[in-house]
Specification:
The chain is an all-alpha fold. The protein has one domain. It has helices spanning 10-21, 28-54, 65-79. α2 (28-54) packs across α3. The model has no long low-confidence stretch (mean pLDDT 84).
């Protein structure tokens, strides 16, 4: 797995240590990986919301958000 070095505030580092010490996570890496998964999900949701807001003409044809998300994921996989 690739290694990345980041700088954290003392409060962030203490929060990570507390999450591990309280037994919520097995390691600090696990805490950071979950935080990144949540960040990625929020970013994707923001992109979907932007697509919905940009579509003022109703050109989505009544497509549901799940369909738009599936299209977004398929496009991301193709460009990766």
């Amino acid at each position: 797995m690739p290694m990345v070095t980041v700088s954290l505030s003392p409060q962030q580092a203490a929060g990570i240590r507390a999450a591990v010490d309280n037994g919520g996570y097995a390691s600090s890496s696990e805490v950071v990986r979950e935080a990144l998964r949540l960040w990625d999900a929020a970013r994707k949701l923001g992109e979907i919301k932007a697509e919905l807001l940009d579509d003022e003409s109703g050109a989505s044809g009544g497509r549901c958000v799940a369909d738009m998300f599936a299209d977004h994921e398929a496009q991301r996989r193709r460009s990766a």
